[in-house]
């Protein structure tokens, strides 16, 4: 076959730009196809990354808007406060970050084409573009988001949650009242859990200068989500809405394939998203780290079967964690608002704020779940009438 390039990447978001950079700096001929004229717009991310980001990718200081060290967790009538001694996450300028990652790729020899990829021949590596041209690549990498055309071509089922977010200016006193705390308002995020939106939740992320990203993900329509967020703001804050955004969060499905013939998927296109929080950027970056190794090997050896190692390695690393998070999600789905209040009350009574502070992690919930099970706390905090169902979820005997 006569190929036009080594690798064609569909999508110049943070994941597509990262894998492009990794392959470009290793000497491959890389092309990125991106349908958007302006990278990063519209904003479709809460824009908060854990401190582990530096293990997966670069994050320039000028991209960081705020640093947080903990969270206030809310039900209707109870509040938990969990925190570390130093910062655990960074609130970022997501649009600037997307631009940084793309520019870094281009500076390393990656070619950018502003067209839409509309169809694929994954067996022969052909990508058909919206300008009626086609490009043939040794390997195609789909980083084209939750509604990936390449994923559809590979036969995957694409399930999503809706997500909505607002940029809101909130009065400082009302934030302190909401948290029942005068701690540094910019050092904490808020999560608000209620029966109506489970397994999703509302987040309130401090950007700085009394501005917050207030959003949620759930199974509701975007219109209904807007109503829920507006009611939430009206009930708790003095505020002014500056901007509104909406998007979608893919739902991980281990039955879907992420490698077929000459094509692979990474990031949201592969639904590489944490089940409990909907966060996926670090998973996508690690997907790039894993995939880049096998893409380089496949091209060097002229053996595309090596690409299958990427799927095996990703699943080996993350499937167990995802399964723990799905169990947590199923457990939460059993709870009413009254049950959630009971849960938080029992967490306080059993000194679990400290336990969550010590063992909790934005990216890995299994460590904390195992600690609850190990200490015999799980059945001390859950309403007794749910014991049998939760035993079935976690497979206890």
Blueprint (SSEs and pairs):
Elements: E1 5-10, H1 14-24, E2 30-33, E3 48-50, E4 64-68, E5 70-74, E6 79-83, E7 89-92, H2 94-107, E8 111-113, E9 117-121, E10 126-129, E11 134-142, H3 149-153, E12 160-170, H4 172-179, E13 188-192, E14 202-208, E15 211-218, H5 222-236, E16 239-250, E17 259-260, E18 263-265, H6 281-301, H7 308-333, H8 337-349, H9 352-359, H10 366-374, H11 378-381, H12 387-394
Parallel strand pairs: 1-2, 1-11, 2-8, 5-13, 11-18
Antiparallel strand pairs: 3-7, 4-7, 5-6, 9-10, 10-11, 12-15, 12-16, 13-14, 14-15, 17-18
Helix pairs in contact: 1-2, 1-6, 6-7, 7-12
Number of helices: 12
- pLDDT averaged over residues: 94
Largest sheet: 8 strands, mixed
Helical residues, percent: 25-40%
SSE topology string = EHEEEEEEHEEEEHEHEEEHEEEHHHHHHH
Tell the overall outline.
Answer: globular
User: How far from one another are the termini?
Assistant: 57 Å
Q: In what range is the share of β-strand residues?
A: 25-35%
Low-confidence stretches: none
Summing up helix and strand content along with how strands pair, one would put the structural category as: alpha/beta
DSSP strand tally:
18
What radius of gyration results from the CA coordinates? Answer: 22 Å
């Amino acid at each position: 076959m006569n190929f036009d390039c080594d690798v064609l990447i569909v999508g110049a978001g943070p994941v597509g730009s990262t894998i492009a950079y990794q392959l470009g700096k290793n000497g491959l001929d890389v092309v990125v196809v991106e349908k958007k004229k302006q990278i990063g717009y519209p904003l479709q991310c809460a824009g908060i990354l854990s401190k582990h980001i530096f293990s997966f990718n670069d994050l320039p200081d000028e991209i960081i808007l705020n640093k947080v060290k903990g969270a206030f967790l809310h039900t209707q009538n109870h509040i938990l406060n969990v925190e570390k001694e130093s910062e655990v996450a960074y609130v970022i300028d997501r649009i600037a970050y997307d631009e940084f990652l793309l520019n870094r790729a281009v500076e390393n020899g990656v070619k950018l084409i502003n067209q839409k990829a509309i169809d694929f021949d994954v067996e022969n590596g052909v990508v058909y573009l919206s300008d009626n041209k086609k490009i043939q690549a040794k390997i195609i990498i789909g980083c084209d988001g939750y509604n990936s055309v390449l994923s559809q071509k590979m036969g995957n089922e694409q399930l999503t949650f809706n997500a909505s977010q607002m940029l809101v200016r909130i009065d400082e006193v009302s934030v302190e009242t909401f948290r029942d705390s005068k701690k540094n308002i910019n050092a904490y995020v808020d999560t608000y859990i209620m029966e109506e939106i489970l397994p999703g939740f509302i987040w309130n992320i401090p950007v700085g200068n009394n501005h917050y990203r207030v959003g949620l993900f759930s199974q509701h329509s975007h219109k209904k989500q807007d109503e829920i967020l507006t009611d939430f703001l009206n009930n708790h804050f003095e505020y002014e809405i500056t901007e509104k955004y909406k998007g979608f969060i893919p739902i991980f499905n281990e039955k879907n394939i992420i490698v077929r013939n000459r094509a692979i998927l990474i990031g949201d296109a592969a639904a590489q998203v944490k089940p409990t929080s909907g966060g996926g950027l670090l998973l996508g970056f690690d997907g790039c780290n894993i995939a880049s190794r096998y893409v380089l090997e496949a091209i060097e050896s002229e053996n595309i079967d090596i690409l299958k190692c990427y799927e095996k390695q990703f699943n080996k690393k993350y499937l167990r964690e995802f399964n723990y998070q799905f169990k947590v999600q199923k457990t939460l789905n059993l709870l009413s608002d009254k049950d959630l209040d009971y849960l938080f009350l029992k967490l306080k009574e059993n000194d679990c704020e400290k336990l969550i502070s010590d063992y909790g992690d934005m990216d890995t919930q299994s460590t904390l779940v195992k600690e609850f099970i190990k200490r015999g706390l799980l059945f001390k905090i859950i309403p007794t009438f749910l014991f049998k169902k939760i035993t079935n979820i976690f497979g206890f005997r």
